[in-house]
Amino acid sequence: MKKYWLRRLLLIPLTLFGIMLLNFVLIQMTPGGPVEHMLLKMQNSASGTEAANIVDSKQNTFTQQIREELEKQFGFDKPVLVRFVQMIKNYARFDFGKSFYQDRSVIDLIKDKMPVSISLGVFSTLLIYLIAIPLGIKKAVRHGSKFDKWTTFVLTIGYAVPAFLLAIFLVIFFAGGHYLGWFPLRGLISDNWQELSFGRQILDYLWHLVLPVLSITIGGIAGLCFLTKNSFLDELGKAYVRTARAKGCSEKRVLYGHVFRNAMLLVLAGFPAMLIGMLFTGSVLIEVIFSLDGLGLLGYEAIQNRDYPIVFGTLYLFALLGLVLNVLSDFIYTLIDPRIHFGGRRA
C-alpha cells in the first residue's frame, strides 16, 4: 500500500509536466500572441506623425524594429524549447515571473486575488455538501412521495437557472436594485471595515458573501443531491441492507451505519473537481456582477490580453492543487471503506 501511495505522489510532477507541455504547445499554435496584442494596442492609440513613424502606411504593418523590441521584452526572442525549459525550472521554484501588462509579479497578483476565490469556493462547496447530502438521503428514504416530487421540481428549476441570471435577480430584489436593500452590492468588505470590532468585521464579511455564495450554491445543490439520492437507492436495494433489517437494526442504524459509507464513495469522487471549479473557474460572471476581484476574473482577463505569465502561473497552481486533491480523495476512500485497497492484495 505504501508503494502505491509513493507511486501516486511521484506521478504528480510527471502529470503536471505533461499538462504544462500540452498547454504550452497549444499556446504556440494559437494565433495572436502578446506581441501582436501589444502592436494592435499601439496601432489603435497611435495618431498623426506618431502613427506614421510606427506604421507602414502602404502595407499597414508595424516596423520590424518595434516587433523585435517587443519580442525581446516579452522573452520571445529565444527558441521555443529554451523558453519552455526555463519556464519549468522557474515554476519548480514557484517563480512565475511578472505580468506582461500589470508590472507586478504573478505570485503577488494571485495572493491579492486569492481571498475572494477562497471565500466563494470554500463557502459555496461547504454549503452545497451540507444541504445536498442530507436532502438527497431524505429523498432516497421517501422516494416517490410528495416530498420527493416537489423537491425534485424545485431542484430542477434551480439547476436550470444559470448562476449569473440568479445573481442578477438577487441584486435587483435584495441589493437595492428596485426593491429591498438588505445586502451590499459590491466588494467583499465595507469601506469602514478597519474601523469595526473583530466580531463586526466577521459579520460584515459574511454579509457581503451571502448573495454571491447563494448564486453559486443553488445550481450546484441539484446535481449533488440527485447523485446522493441515486447512490442511496442503489445501496438500499442490496442484500446486506435486507439482512441488517431482518436482524432488527433500526432504520437510522441501517442508513448511517451500513449504507452511508458505501453510498458516499461516489459522492466524494466529485469533491476535488467541484472544489477546484468553485475556487478558480466557476465564478467569473459572479465576480463581475458583484465587483469581486478574484482568480476567475484574473485568469479570464489574462487569456483575453494574452498575458502568458498569469495564464501559465494560474494553470500550474490549479493543476497542482487538483492532482493533490485527487490523491487526498483516494486516501479518504480508504478511511471510509477499509475494503478499498489501492495497493492490491496478495492471494
Helix content: over 70%
Instruction: Tell me how many strands there are.
Output: 2
Estimated radius of gyration: 26 Å
Global structural class: mainly alpha
* Biggest β-sheet description: 2 strands, antiparallel
**Element pattern in H and E:** HHHEEHHHHHHHHHHHH
Q: Order of strands across the widest beta sheet?
A: 1-2
Give the distance, in angstroms, between the N- and C-terminal Cα atoms. Answer: 15 Å
The averaged pLDDT comes out at: 79
Q: Specify the number of helices.
A: 15
Strand content: under 5%
Choose one word for the global shape.
globular
Low-confidence stretches: 47-62
SSE order and pairing:
Blueprint: H1 2-29, H2 34-45, H3 48-54, E1 55-56, E2 61-62, H4 64-74, H5 80-92, H6 106-141, H7 146-160, H8 163-174, H9 198-236, H10 239-246, H11 251-269, H12 271-281, H13 284-289, H14 295-305, H15 308-336
Antiparallel strand pairs: 1-2
Task: Write structural notes for this entry.
It contains 15 helices and 2 strands. By secondary structure, it is mostly helical. A two-stranded antiparallel sheet has the order 1-2. Strand 1 and strand 2 form a beta hairpin. The chain is globular and about 85 Å long. The two termini are 15 Å apart.
